[in-house]
């Protein structure tokens, strides 16, 4: 059963409304009815999709429409449908933004998904969009679509805290390139989502604003570090969100929260304005509820950026265009080391079996591949990642911006106290480790060895991709763990990224699809890893796989 | 190898981070464990394997030498924890800092 | 006991670009504090560096000018340390793969007034890096206990040029710096303006032990004039020698130089030296320079000082020394060549340029571009002398007047009637007048005592107020009095 179906079944809403739909000048009066039956929700979405242009329901004065249901629905629509609905005047951008903000605010106490909700800014932006004429709206792929942005991505004028005391009051004077792309496409940023401090973590527990809770079970972790974004999308506070992924920080929380998380190929999406954690791994990517939304959002985010020297200069693809094409010729490789790994929970194992069966059902050819070096992925990642981190964190010194300690005796003391107070334990731990692996006498033994081992991982992927097009395996060895369960055991926490890290080491695109649930209803994700810049094919397979799952 | 407490102290001084006694204890234990795990890498024969620092083999990404106005000095200084006139202000710089 | 010093020099040269090395902020000197800044050079969260194309062009040019090997694939690295004027906590520089290595500069050094000898100073490496901001401190600024920081310089492009420890004396060090500066200026790589900090140097000094082994090395930082560099090295050599003579050991350390006292002072010892934790800069990609690029740059290179000196010597038949002086600056050499193209006697031109022209520039503290006497005017003046229209002595006065009035030498000469008296009959009349008064000397002359000729020449010169050409006067005396 797919996510959409699950959503429909688990929300006890039964509602009816009338809508006036004007299509090609003709007015229709349709009655939508929605019941617990999942099929009818799919039907509803399908109808919207089919009606396409000119949808104009939810008119003012339509007394039969129940406001509460409307609010919920806006955040349940696919973003392409929502965008065209708003662009064609079926709904105002202000209404959409209000809906999302209300949801975000009302869920905040329970989930703590947001660091800040920008009601004023979002409504002003939505109003500006509403005042645009038809011509100006054309070509804006996300017209009026509310979106949540992880709080390590700079949005001009508002706070960008990275979940750290160090930047608790920091206001960025510029927009990240992805934020510009979103804005140009007509998106409305409703707020900034919670994260592990500076994105260092796998549970969104190290934020100075407290943990974000899993919408499926609030005693459990939402994963991390993009936990706020995953929780926001899973709880319908926004139809989509941006996350960042350095070692799995988009995919693992997506898996824990039952949403889709896509980490693009390194260099596809600009990192300008993303507060660096480990620059040779970091990528920004979408968190959505289905593949179509992820594909659309990716086509907005992707593109060469002259402000990022590691951004690749290649034409932007329309990832949504060929999503429904045949997948029979796609060769899928099952990562032996991951599917047979120790420590997979039974539910993860059984979900993987379902996924492999679904792959067979849709006609993909499947073989098992071996990437022996993946055993070393976590070790490589924690050497290189912490090394880069230790350097990136040096700028937080209390001189130009951010926190400065009080009561210091001299400059050196100011540095030590500022950084001692401003960073939480996890960040300090990683800085110390990173300083160690780069320090005199240890560089060769640790940092350079890890760089060489990284080459082996890349080679293993190259070899694997000679025979197959897409790799498949679990996203995480387990379902969402309890809040507090691993936070005191860093190594255990680091090992929870074991399946997601390899794609970051090799800079490959990877996606976590919501695919199953355990007996307690906790979501389980399946990971696909593609060749460099082969997102289109990976997403096509993902789409077929999710559709198959939805209908089975 | 393990990481002694004194070594953690040294690393913290390089990184200019004040650590509490508790943190020093905690970190030296944890880092020992993590570094022990990382030593897995010693199993690999890496002699003839070149290091990778970038996954995309990009080269010569350059920009034109055209000046553009960045921030105004007020925008730049607006972020400062402490300032004096048009300058950022810090405790007196002494060489050994 | 005189111990041989072993000296190596590191120079930071600011590249002549419009914008900074990794962001688009202006490099203009003297802007209001913190007005040439942006999120990138301030090291704000989320920013990324992008390398300036012009920086690469100038660095390759510098490398070729210094006879370096260009690294085909170089890389940037982070040098991690804390300093308030460093915005990111690391400096982006090049470490194990600098853009160029293994170069050299030849310098001519004359020690203790002896004959100049050519000394080759090898260059170990040349790499690109970013400058840091500027900290101001001092009670004069009313900032007791605090330092104030201006980040305008932060991110200004530099190349660092490091020699091998080939330099054997403070004078060699000074000559190396002068030559390096000349080359950088010739190629338009840097203006090398030391007052504005666009050329700064550090020196490493050790003394060679009697057994030939190298002594402990000390570094002197931030020498901001060539004269200071020489004095600081001299002082440091004496200091180290005294330490050794006292039977103690030189401790490895970093020193500063106080120009007022002429002494070096310790900044930090080796024990306090930093662990910079260099590693490859992940935000920048490889920098590749291929053969085509190198050849294209080579074609654009101007004639370098050594080549120019050789050519000037041959082409204008001037002494090597003159050619060296004239080629210390491309503008001076151009001035000379322009003038020498209008006047055939190269040596006369070099004498005038090196004497009157350079003297004037020094006196007025101006560059040759602002010289009030153009090379054309100077050539006109020299042509008047060569044609015998004015004497050399008068020419000096005319030069002064060109400086004052800007008029052409011809105009000055004719207006003030300064032309040489070349009318033979007029001179003959004067000679006869003199002869009438001193028949005794006429008799002597006629008896073969040619040494009295001088008296008659002197008298004529006196009466013509120096405007007669003495050689012509001499001939006429012989004609009139000796009937030759």
Q: How would you describe this structure to a colleague?
A:
The complex is a heterotrimer of chains A (552), B (97) and C (484). Chain A is of the alpha/beta class. Chain A has helices spanning 3-10, 38-51, 67-74, 79-87, 93-111, 119-130, 134-137, 177-184, 227-234, 251-257, 291-301, 336-339, 346-361, 377-392, 411-422, 425-438, 443-467, 490-495, 501-506, 535-551; strands at residues 15-23, 26-34, 114-117, 146-150, 188-193, 213-214, 217-221, 240-245, 260-263, 283-288, 331-335, 365-369, 470-474, 510-517, 523-530. In chain A, a hairpin with a 2-residue loop joins β6 (213-214) and β7. The model of chain A is unreliable at 1-68 (pLDDT under 50). In chain B, α1 packs across α2 (21-38). Chain B has helices at residues 5-14, 21-38, 73-78, and strands at residues 62-63, 83-84, 87-91. Chain B has a two-stranded antiparallel sheet. With 97 residues, chain B is an alpha+beta fold. By secondary structure, chain C is α+β, with helices and mostly antiparallel strands. Chain C has three domains: 4-294, no CATH class; 303-415, no CATH class; 424-481, Orthogonal Bundle (Arc Repressor Mutant, subunit A), CATH 1.10.10. Chain C has helices at residues 53-65, 170-186, 226-245, 291-300, 305-316, 320-326, 330-340, 346-364, 375-386, 392-405, 409-415, 424-437, 439-446, 453-463, 470-482, and strands at residues 5-14, 51-52, 69-70, 73-74, 77-80, 90-93, 100-109, 117-130, 134-136, 146-150, 157-163, 199-207, 218-223, 253-258, 263-269, 279-280, 287-288. The longest helix of chain C has 20 residues, at 226-245. The model of chain C has no long low-confidence stretch (mean pLDDT 91).
């Amino acid at each position: 059963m797919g996510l959409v179906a699950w959503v429909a079944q688990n929300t006890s809403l039964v509602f009816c409304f009338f809508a006036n739909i004007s299509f090609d000048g003709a007015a229709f009066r349709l009655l939508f009815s929605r019941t617990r039956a999942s099929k009818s929700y799919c039907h509803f979405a399908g109808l919207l999709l089919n009606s396409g242009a000119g949808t104009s329901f939810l008119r003012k004065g339509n007394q039969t429409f129940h406001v509460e249901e409307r609010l919920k629905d806006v955040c349940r629509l696919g973003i392409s449908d929502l965008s065209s609905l708003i662009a064609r005047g079926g709904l105002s951008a202000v209404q959409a933004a209000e809906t999302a903000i209300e949801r975000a605010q009302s869920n905040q106490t329970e989930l703590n998904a947001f660091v800040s909700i920008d009601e004023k800014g979002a409504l002003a932006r939505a109003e500006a969009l509403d005042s645009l004429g038809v011509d100006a709206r054309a070509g804006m792929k996300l017209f009026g679509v509310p979106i949540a942005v992880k709080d390590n991505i700079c949005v001009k004028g508002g706070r960008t805290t990275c979940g750290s005391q160090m930047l608790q009051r920091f206001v960025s004077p510029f927009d990240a390139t992805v934020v510009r792309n979103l804005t140009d496409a007509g998106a409305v940023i409703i707020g900034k989502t919670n994260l592990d401090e500076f994105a260092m973590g796998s549970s969104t527990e190290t934020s100075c604003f407290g943990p974000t809770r899993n919408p499926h079970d609030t005693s459990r972790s939402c994963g991390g570090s993009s936990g706020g974004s995953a929780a926001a999308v899973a709880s319908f506070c926004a139809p989509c969100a941006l996350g960042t992924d350095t070692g799995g920080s988009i995919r693992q929380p997506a898996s824990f929260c039952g949403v889709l998380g896509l980490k693009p190929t390194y260099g596809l999406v600009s990192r300008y304005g993303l507060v660096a954690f480990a620059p040779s791994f970091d990528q920004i990517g979408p968190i959505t509820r289905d593949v179509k939304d992820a594909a659309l959002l990716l086509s907005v985010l992707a593109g060469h950026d002259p402000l990022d020297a590691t951004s690749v200069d290649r034409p932007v693809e329309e990832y949504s265009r060929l999503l429904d094409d045949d997948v029979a010729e796609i060769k899928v490789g099952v990562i032996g080391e991951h599917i047979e790994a120790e420590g997979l929970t039974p539910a993860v194992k059984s979900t993987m079996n379902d996924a492999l069966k679904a792959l067979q059902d849709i006609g993909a050819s499947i073989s098992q591949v071996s990437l022996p070096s993946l055993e070393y992925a976590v070790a490589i990642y924690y050497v290189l990642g912490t090394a880069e981190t230790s350097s990136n964190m040096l700028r937080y010194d209390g001189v130009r911006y951010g926190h400065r300690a009080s009561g210091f005796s001299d400059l050196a003391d100011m540095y030590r106290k500022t950084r001692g107070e401003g960073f939480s334990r996890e960040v300090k731990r990683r800085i110390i480790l990173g300083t160690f692996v780069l320090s005199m006498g240890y560089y060769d033994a640790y940092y350079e060895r890890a760089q060489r081992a990284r080459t082996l991982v890349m080679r293993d992927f190259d070899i694997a991709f000679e025979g197959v097009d897409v790799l498949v395996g679990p996203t995480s060895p387990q379902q969402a763990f309890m809040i507090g369960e691993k936070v005191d055991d860093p190594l255990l926490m680091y090992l929870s990224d074991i399946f997601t890290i390899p794609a970051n080491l090799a800079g490959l695109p990877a996606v976590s699809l919501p695919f199953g649930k355990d007996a307690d209803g906790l979501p389980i994700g399946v990971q696909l890893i593609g060749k460099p810049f082969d997102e289109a094919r990976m997403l096509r397979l993902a789409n077929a796989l999710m559709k198959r799952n939805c209908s089975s | 190898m393990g990481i002694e407490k004194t070594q953690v102290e040294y690393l913290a001084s390089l990184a200019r981070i004040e650590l509490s006694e508790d943190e020093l204890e905690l970190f030296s234990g944890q880092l020992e464990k993590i570094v022990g795990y990382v030593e897995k890498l010693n199993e690999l024969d890496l002699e003839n394997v070149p290091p990778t620092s970038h996954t995309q083999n990009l080269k010569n990404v350059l920009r034109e030498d055209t000046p553009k106005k960045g921030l105004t000095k007020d925008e730049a200084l607006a972020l400062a924890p402490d300032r004096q006139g048009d300058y950022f202000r810090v405790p007196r710089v002494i060489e050994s800092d | 006991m005189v111990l041989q010093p072993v000296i190596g020099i590191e120079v930071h040269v600011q590249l002549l670009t419009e914008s900074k090395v990794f962001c688009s902020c202006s490099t203009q000197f003297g802007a209001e504090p913190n007005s040439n800044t942006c999120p990138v050079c301030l090291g704000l969260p989320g920013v990324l560096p992008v390398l300036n194309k012009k920086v690469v062009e100038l660095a390759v040019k510098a490398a070729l000018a210094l006879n370096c090997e260009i690294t085909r694939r170089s890389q940037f690295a982070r040098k991690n340390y804390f300093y308030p004027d460093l915005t990111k906590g690391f400096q982006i520089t090049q470490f194990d793969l600098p853009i160029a290595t293994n170069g050299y500069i030849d310098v001519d050094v004359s020690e203790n007034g002896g004959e100049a000898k050519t000394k080759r100073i090898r260059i170990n490496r040349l790499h690109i890096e970013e400058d840091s901001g500027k900290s101001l401190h001092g009670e004069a600024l009313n900032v007791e206990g605090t330092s104030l920081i201006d980040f305008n310089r932060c991110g200004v492009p530099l190349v660092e040029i490091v020699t091998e420890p080939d330099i054997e004396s403070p004078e060699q060090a000074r000559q190396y710096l002068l030559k390096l500066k000349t080359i950088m200026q010739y190629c338009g790589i840097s203006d090398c303006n030391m007052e504005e900090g666009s050329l700064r140097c550090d020196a490493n000094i050790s003394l060679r032990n009697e057994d030939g082994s190298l002594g402990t090395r000390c570094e002197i930082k931030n020498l901001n004039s060539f004269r200071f560099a020489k004095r600081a090295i001299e002082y440091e050599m004496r200091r180290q020698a005294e330490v050794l003579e006292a039977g103690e050991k030189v401790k490895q350390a970093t020193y500063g130089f106080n120009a007022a006292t002429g002494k070096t002072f310790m900044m930090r010892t080796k024990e306090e030296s930093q662990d910079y934790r260099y590693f490859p800069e992940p935000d920048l990609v490889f920098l590749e320079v291929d053969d085509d690029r190198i050849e294209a740059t080579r074609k654009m290179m101007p004639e370098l000082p050594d080549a120019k000196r050789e050519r000037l010597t041959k082409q204008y038949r001037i002494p090597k020394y003159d050619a060296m002086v004239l080629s210390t600056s491309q503008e001076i050499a151009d001035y000379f060549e322009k003038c020498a193209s209008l006047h055939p006697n190269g040596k006369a031109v070099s004498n005038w340029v090196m004497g009157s022209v350079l003297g004037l520039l020094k006196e007025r503290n101006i560059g040759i571009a602002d010289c009030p006497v153009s090379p054309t005017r100077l050539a006109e003046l020299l042509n008047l002398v060569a044609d015998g229209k004015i004497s050399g002595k008068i020419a000096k006065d005319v030069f002064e007047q060109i400086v004052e009035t800007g008029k052409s030498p011809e105009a000055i000469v004719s207006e003030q009637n300064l032309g040489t008296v070349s009318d033979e009959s007029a001179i003959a009349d004067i000679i006869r007048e003199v002869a009438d008064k001193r028949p005794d000397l006429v008799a002597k002359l006629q008896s073969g005592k040619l040494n009295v000729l001088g008296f008659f020449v002197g008298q004529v010169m006196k009466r013509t107020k120096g405007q007669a050409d003495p050689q012509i006067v001499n001939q006429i005396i012989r004609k009139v009095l000796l009937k030759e």
